[in-house]
Design brief:
With 317 residues, the protein is α+β, with helices and mostly antiparallel strands. The protein has a single domain, classed as Lambda Exonuclease, Chain A, CATH 3.90.320. It is built from eleven helices and nine strands. The strands form three sheets. The protein has a five-stranded mixed β-sheet. Strands 1-2 form a two-stranded antiparallel ribbon. Strands 3-4 form a two-stranded antiparallel sheet. Helix 3 crosses helix 10. The longest helix has 37 residues. It is elongated. The two termini are 28 Å apart.
Length: 317
C-alpha cells in the first residue's frame, strides 16, 4: 500500500478510501479477449504503471475499480432518500402561509382578504369560484370527448416496412455461418483426401494456468489439424489495406493461448488469412502481472483495511 500511496496526491488516498467504503468486492471476475484488450490498451492504466520521479496521480484508473468492485446501491438509495426528505422539508417551510400574506390564486379565481363584517361578499365569492371551476372542468371534458370521437371515426392506418419480406427471410447469427463453414470444410477435405473433421465447439473455456482468462464462442477443429476457425462476414474487421485490425489480431492470439492452439484460419469477404501464434499473449501476461502486483493487490489490501476500520468503529460505539 505504501507504493500505491506514493503515487497519489495528498488528498487522493483519503478519496480512494471513501470510494472503497461504498464499494462491494465482486465474487469473481474473468477476462475474455475483448475485456483483456480493453485493459491492455487503456492509456490511463499504462501511464499509472509507468510513473517516474515526483509525478503524482489524482486517482486510480477507473477500469481497475470497475473490474474489481460494484457500487453499493443500497448505500446510494439511503443517501437519495435522505436528500429527498431534506428537499421536502425545505419546500414545506418555504410554502408555509403567514398571517401577513393570505393572498393566492386557484385557476382563474382571485382570493382576497375579506373582513368579518362582509360575510355575504365572502360567500358570493366562494360560489363564483366553484362555478368557474366546474365550467372549466366541463369544457375540458367536452373537448376531450369530441377529440376522441373524431379519432374513433378515422380509419386505422397500418404501415408496412418496405423490407418486411426481406427481414423475415433473414437468417439468425449462427445460421449465417453454415455456408462459410461448409465451403471451408470442402476445401479441407480436398486437401486431406476426404478425411472427417472433428469439431470442438467451445462455449466457455478457461486458461490452464490462469483461470480468469477465458475463451468464448470458438469454432475449434481438433483433427486433422488443431486450429481455430474465425469467420468474418463484414469488412469492418479489416483495415483499408485488407489486413486484420489490431483488436481482431489480439482476440485470435488471446484465444489461441487460452486453448493452447498454435494456428488460426480466418475466412472473410476479401479472402482467407492464416494467423500463427506469436508473443502477443506473453507480452500481455507480463503487463497483467504488473497490474496485479502494483495496483490490484494494494487496492484489495486497502479495501480490507477500510472494512476493518468500520468494524472497529462498531465496537467503539
Amino acid at each position: 500500500m505504501q507504493r500505491l500511496e506514493e503515487r497519489f496526491e495528498p488528498k487522493a488516498m483519503s478519496e480512494l478510501k471513501e470510494q472503497l467504503a461504498k464499494s462491494i468486492l465482486k465474487n469473481a471476475f474473468s477476462f475474455t479477449a475483448q475485456k483483456a484488450q480493453k485493459l491492455y490498451t487503456n492509456q490511463n492504466l499504462k501511464s499509472f504503471l509507468n510513473i517516474t520521479g515526483d509525478e503524482k496521480f489524482k486517482k486510480i484508473p477507473q477500469i481497475i475499480l470497475d473490474t474489481l468492485f460494484s457500487i453499493d446501491k443500497s448505500n446510494n438509495k439511503r443517501e437519495a432518500e435522505v436528500k429527498e426528505n431534506i428537499q421536502k422539508e425545505t419546500l414545506l417551510k418555504e410554502n408555509k402561509p403567514t398571517s401577513s400574506s393570505l393572498a393566492g390564486s386557484t385557476g382563474d379565481c382571485e382570493l382576497e382578504i375579506v373582513h368579518e363584517n362582509n360575510k355575504e361578499t365572502q360567500q358570493n365569492l366562494g360560489i363564483k369560484c366553484a362555478k368557474e371551476a366546474d365550467d372549466t372542468e366541463m369544457s375540458k371534458i367536452t373537448a376531450e370527448n369530441r377529440q376522441s370521437n373524431k379519432e374513433g371515426l378515422q380509419k386505422p392506418v397500418v404501415k408496412y416496412a418496405k423490407d418486411a419480406d426481406k427481414m423475415m427471410a433473414e437468417q439468425g447469427p449462427y445460421e449465417k455461418l453454415l455456408l462459410p463453414i461448409s465451403k471451408w470444410i470442402k476445401k479441407k477435405r480436398e486437401k486431406y483426401h476426404n478425411k472427417n473433421f472433428h469439431l470442438d465447439p467451445i462455449g466457455v473455456r478457461e486458461h490452464e494456468t490462469y483461470s480468469c482468462f477465458v475463451a468464448e464462442d470458438i469454432l475449434r477443429f481438433t483433427y486433422p489439424e488443431d486450429i481455430i476457425l474465425r469467420i468474418l462476414q463484414d469488412n469492418k474487421y479489416l483495415t483499408s489495406g485488407r489486413k486484420l485490425k489490431k483488436n481482431v489480431e489480439f482476440e485470435l492470439q488471446f484465444n489461441m493461448a487460452v486453448l493452447g492452439v498454435k494456428r488460426s484460419e480466418i475466412t472473410s469477404p476479401v479472402g482467407d488469412f492464416i494467423v500463427e501464434a506469436d508473443c502477443t499473449f506473453a507480452q500481455f501476461e507480463i503487463f497483467f502481472k504488473k497490474v496485479v502486483f502494483e495496483i490490484v493487490l494494494p487496492v484489495l489490501a486497502l479495501h480490507n483495511c477500510v472494512k476493518l476500520d468500520v468494524i472497529r468503529k462498531a465496537f467503539i460505539c
